[in-house]
Amino acid sequence: MIIKVGVIGAGVMGAEHARLLSSVVSDAEVTAVSDPDAKRLAEVVETCGTARAFADPLELIRDKSVDAVLIASPDQTHAALVLACLEIEKPVLCEKPLAATAEECLRVIAREEVLKRRLVTAGYMRRFDPGYLEMKRRLDEGDLGAALVMHCIHRNVASSPFATAAMLISGSAVHEIDIARFVLAREVQRVTVVTPRKTSLAAIQDPQIIFLEMEDRVVVEAEIFVNAQYGYDVRAELVCEKGTITLTPPHDVTVAQAAGESFSFPGDWRARFAHAYRAELQAWVDGLRGNAPSGASAWDGYVATAVADAGLKSLATGQPQAVNLAPRPGLYA
Ligand code: ISE
User: Does the C-beta of 155 come closer than 6 Å to ligand 1?
Assistant: First the structure.
C-alpha cells in the first residue's frame, strides 16, 4: 500500500517535505500540494511527479486522492487545518508548533479524544535525530546516574525580516522544550526567560536565555540566538551524576590546513537535521501502513506550546512563570 500524501504549504519546509516524500521515503507519494502563491505551488508540484495543485487547502484535505495530510503552512493556520483533517478522520503530520496557542492545541486533543484515535503527529523531528536518540539511550542505560542539568545551544544564521522576539520562543525554543521532555522524560514546571545584551545586528531581543525547571529539579538552560551569523549550530550537553553526554556536531570531514583544523556548519536546519526529517517521515508513513501512531503526539504538541506560552509571559514580565498543564487524557498515556 502506497500512502498518498497531500502537502499544505509550498514554503521552505513544505517544499522539503514534498521532496523527501517523493524521492527518499518508501511507500509514499505526493498526490496533491496547496499554497496561495501560484508560482511557489507550481515549483513544488513540478518536483513531485504527478501531484495536483490546489489553491484551497480544505479542498486538498477532502480530495479522494489524499490519504494523509502534511501541514507546513504558516503557524497561525495549523489548528484549523488539523481540525479539518480530524473532521473527516484523515491522519495528519503538522509541522511545529501544533498550533499558535495552547487553547487551540487543546481543541485538537478534544477532537482526538472524541474519535478515540491518535491521528495527529506533531513535527518535532529532533526525536528522530541519531544524536539525541543516543543521548537518551545512554541516559536510560543508567551507568551515568541521574541527569542533573542540560545545556542547550540553538543558533541560526539570521532571522527573517518579519521575526519578533516572541518567535525565538514560539518558533525556535519549542524544539528545546520538546527534546528536553523527550530525553529527560520529565515535565517542565517553571520557565524563566532572561534577556542578555542584544546583538546590534538585529532589531529584536536576540539572544534570549531560557531556563526550564523540570520535575525533580532537573534544570535545562537554553541559549537561543537566531542572528548568530556564522552558521546553524545546535548543541547539547547533558550533565549527569557520573559523567556527561555531549552531542557531536555532525559533519562529514574535518579539514586540517594552514596550521588549523576546521569543519563547516550547515546553513540551516534542513541540512543539520536531514537524517531526522527523513526518519520522521518514514516512521509516519510506516505507522500509517501499520495503523500505529509515530513521533510526537498532539499531547506533546500541546505541552511544547503551553510551556512556550509560559516563556512568552516570562519574556513580557521578566518573572518566572509556572506551567499549569491540563490533565493528560488516557489516549496519550
Ligand atoms: C525554524 O522554524 C525551525 O523549526 C528550526 O528547526 C529552528 O532551528 C529554527 O530556529 C526555526 O526558526
Answer: no
Confidence of residue 249 (pLDDT cuts 50, 70, 90): confident
pLDDT in tens, 44-56: 999 998 899 999 9
Check pocket membership of 136 for ligand 1, CB cut-off 6 A: no
The crossing angle, in degrees rounded to 10, of helices 274-290 and 12-23 is 60
pLDDT, mean of residues 172-194 = 98
pLDDT of residue 51: 96
- Whether residue 123 contacts residue 93, with contact meaning beta carbons closer than 8 Å, is answered with yes
Determine whether the shortest distance from the Cβ of 156 to ligand 1 is under 6 A: yes
Distances (CA, A) of 120 to 15, 70, 84, 311: 20, 10, 12, 25
Cα(232) to centroid(ligand 1), Å = 10
Question: How far is 115 from 119, CA to CA, in rounded Å?
Answer: 9
Q: State whether the Cα torsion 250-297-118-5 is positive or negative.
A: negative
Locate the ligand 1 atom nearest the alpha carbon of residue 95 and give its number: 4
> Is 311 within 8 Å of 210 (Cβ atoms)?
yes
Q: At residue 291, does pLDDT exceed 90?
A: no
Quick one: cell of 11? Answer: 514554503
- The reply to whether the predicted model has a pTM over 0.90 is yes
